[in-house]
Amino acid sequence: MKTFYIETFGCQMNAHDSEKVVGTLLQKGYTQVQQPGDAELVLYNTCSIRDKAEQKVFNRLQQFKRDAGKGKIFGVIGCVAQQEGDRIFERAPHVSLVAGSASYTRLPEMLVQLEAGNRRVTGLSLDVNETFDTPFTRRDNPHRAYITIIEGCDKACAYCVVPFTRGPERSRTGESVMREARSLAELGYTEIQLLGQNVNSYRDPSPAGWDFARLIANTGTIAGIRRVRFTTSHPRDFVKEIIDAIDENPVLCNHVHLPVQSGSSSVLARMQRQYSRDQYMRRIEWMKNAKREIAITTDIIVGFPGETEADFRETVRLAEEVEYDSMFIFKYSKRPNTPALQYQDQVPEEEKTARLMHLQERQRAIQMRRNGRYVGHCEEVHVEGFNMATGQWIGRTAQNKTLNFHDPELPAPREAATRVGRYLNVLVTRAGPNSLAGERHTA
Ligand code: 5AD
Ligand code: SF4
């Protein structure tokens, strides 16, 4: 029996890719183990969005270097693999397999080569016809499932490696997305999350030609599916019809993650984001004027080359105006191959840190204020688990907020298995900046 271990870094796309890789390996007769020490094949599914993420995998590889001689095979897959290619063999000579996400269809074939004793096997083609649509996905969560709808990215944001690591955009047909969603519903999944680097530029390649708004509207009609989420949106391709679809069908979750990156139009232009601050704010207005209350979250990069103090203040001002429900803030990190690598006037590291901390603090106050408005309201949660330390159930609202709650009737964790995946009503009694807390509401 061949054994493998896999560790995943990075975004939900990567998490889902790993589910596909695991499914493929299990189908080929491999057994998954939970410790790298117990595995014959050790895989790292990597992220290269920032330098820190990339370093993680090289640190891991160093850790287990000595085991390489003992018949253990190491593979690096995902974004660092695609970005670094053959150079990985130089940096970590004990690695035998290097494969980017567009080459996973060839994984069984690559495994055969490894088993035959081949020392170096690569899969680095970004052939657009090789989308990874496998029947062997092994999903981690029995209630919420990821579905890839579009791979790759055709944007050229000046800081971003994704167009290089995941290749050009290619959409799956609407019918194949619907087929996957229906079969998930039949398996008992109630929540689906549609994935893509830029879901808004989804375009059904079949004659039906659905756009993204149409796709979400259609997935929202599948019997048994109670929640549809999607990520990530690009503001440039975000159209009002998406909000209209959310307004019309409560199955479509009232949460949009709309990365702004900066509140300064001149920084946005240098980032090659293809929208101005005003254009972004128009999209925010659509959401604020929607019939349902839509939670809005975002990503921000501080310290992009040339970002002045005044530019940064524009970002803080935008955050105050939008009042995001949550925000991921990153310090700009230089990435290989990207246009911004050539930009002069880098912002000093201490300044980046100071800006990040300042924005974090302001955002914390905004979240505290926003979350406070839920106190006294009843929210439906999808139950995700039980926290032994606090004795509370963990739930998630349609707006993607964590809502921890007590259930006086059911305090015992031995019931967890029967509760996880259910939908319950919870009365919100307390609010913190990052989560809500409450009591099960049974009336
Ligand atoms: N440096 C810092 N943050 C980055 N992101 C993407 N590229 C970089 C980079 N070079 C951030 C963006 C994106 C999120 C996934 O990661 O905010 O939306
Ligand atoms: Fe990381 Fe981007 Fe690759 Fe996701 S697509 S794993 S965030 S580099």
Which structural traits does this protein have?
443 residues, Rossmann fold, 3 domains, six-stranded parallel β-sheet, five-stranded mixed beta barrel, 23% strand, binds 5'-deoxyadenosine, binds iron/sulfur cluster
Can you tell me about this structure?
With 443 residues, this protein is α/β, with parallel strands linked by helices. It has three domains: 2-123, 3-Layer(aba) Sandwich (Rossmann fold), CATH 3.40.50; 144-372, tm_1862 like domain (pyruvate-formate lyase- activating enzyme); 378-440, OB fold (Dihydrolipoamide Acetyltransferase, E2P), CATH 2.40.50.140. Helix content is 33%, strand content 23%. It has 14 helices and 19 strands. The protein has a six-stranded parallel β-sheet, sandwiched between helices. A five-stranded mixed beta barrel has the order 15-16-17-19-18. The chain is globular and about 65 Å long. The mean pLDDT is 94.
Main sheet strand line-up: 2-1-3-4-5-6
What percent strand?
A: 15-25%
Name of the CATH architecture of the largest domain? Alpha-Beta Horseshoe
Whole-number radius of gyration? 23 Å
Heterogens: 5'-deoxyadenosine, iron/sulfur cluster
| Low-pLDDT sequence parts | none
CATH topological fold name of the largest domain? pyruvate-formate lyase- activating enzyme
